[in-house]
């Protein structure tokens, strides 16, 4: 059974209403509010490092002032239904993780309709390979990396961990080159598709089962941390529950957390400095990754 994490008590949520309503805000105002409230100390950042020839394929690399011994570099993939998103909007995620001693890479990947499945996975794998091979040259912590994502980004992260094809194209192996995979509110088992956009994105119906992370669960797996909110109506909690159960069937190490009364946006919004009272996702991810370091994984 997954561990259930109750919502933390905290200040009046109306104080932070603009942040909680980020998906409903204008294209500029939401990121600006988050960015303005994100601390700018405790880390250094190098922006727009190219990891492939395409001009969109750049990443921002954040290094903590105080690295945690043995902590992996985290490659974070943002969500946006594979059709929106920009790495510059997620400094709040990098600040949260660098505050715990992790180096963090946030790459852009190509979006729909420029590309369709599986090209965004190839972009994600290319970013991981670059960090694995070149991150230390830019001050990141060396060694196997942890992949992490929210929503569509969690899909990208978990597909790299489950479906060996994408990292193999880069000469990498998930069991060797990934310290862990962390998914926040990810879609892992979401057939049948409903929207015309997703049907176009993921291709013909007969091949869609192959696009699902749950279809590629096989030993050996990197350790998994899967988190969902019980109030998530965008990506249903069954996605995380089903993947956790399947991974355990093959002997995988899985930590599964459900946050009571938390929806799709709040699970990642709680990484922002003024919203960490919403749920302990930062503590939980940090504890999970640090436990792997202590075990020497």
UniProtKB/TrEMBL annotation:
Keyword hit for Cell membrane: no
Keywords: Hydrolase
InterPro entries for this protein: AB_hydrolase_fold (IPR029058), BD-FAE-like_dom (IPR049492), GDXG_lipolytic_enzyme (IPR050300)
UniProt-listed Pfam families: BD-FAE
Stretches assigned to the BD-FAE-like domain: 59-246
Record keyword Translocase present: no
MF terms (GO), sorted A to Z: hydrolase activity
Name by which UniProt lists this protein: Esterase
Taxonomic source organism: Azospirillum palustre
């Amino acid at each position: 059974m997954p561990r259930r994490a109750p919502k933390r008590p905290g200040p009046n949520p109306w104080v932070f209403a603009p942040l909680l309503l980020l998906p409903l805000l204008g294209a500029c105002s939401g990121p600006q509010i988050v960015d303005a409230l994100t601390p700018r100390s405790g880390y250094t950042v190098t922006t727009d490092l190219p990891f492939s020839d395409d001009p969109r394929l750049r990443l921002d690399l954040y290094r903590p002032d105080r690295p945690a011994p043995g902590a992996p570099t985290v490659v974070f993939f943002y969500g946006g239904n594979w059709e929106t998103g920009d790495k510059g909007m997620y400094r709040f995620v990098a600040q949260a993780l660098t505050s715990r001693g992790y180096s963090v890479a946030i790459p852009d990947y190509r979006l729909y309709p420029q590309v369709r499945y599986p090209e965004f996975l190839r972009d994600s794998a290319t970013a991981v390979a670059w960090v694995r091979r070149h991150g230390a040259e830019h001050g990141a912590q060396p060694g196997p990396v942890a992949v992490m994502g929210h929503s569509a980004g969690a899909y990208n992260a978990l597909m790299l961990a489950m479906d060996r094809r994408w990292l193999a194209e880069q000469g990498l192996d998930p069991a060797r080159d990934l310290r862990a995979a962390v998914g926040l509110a990810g879609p892992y088992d979401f057939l049948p598709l409903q929207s015309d956009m997703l049907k176009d994105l993921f291709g013909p119906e007969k091949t869609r089962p192959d696009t699902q992370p749950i279809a590629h669960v096989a030993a050996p797996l990197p350790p998994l941390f899967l988190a969902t909110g019980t109030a998530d109506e965008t990506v249903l909690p069954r996605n995380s529950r089903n993947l956790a159960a399947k991974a355990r069937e093959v002997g995988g190490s899985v930590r599964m957390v459900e946050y009571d009364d938390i929806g799709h946006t709040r699970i990642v919004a709680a990484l922002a400095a003024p919203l960490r009272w919403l749920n302990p996702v930062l503590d939980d991810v940090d504890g999970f990754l640090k436990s792997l370091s202590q075990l020497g994984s």
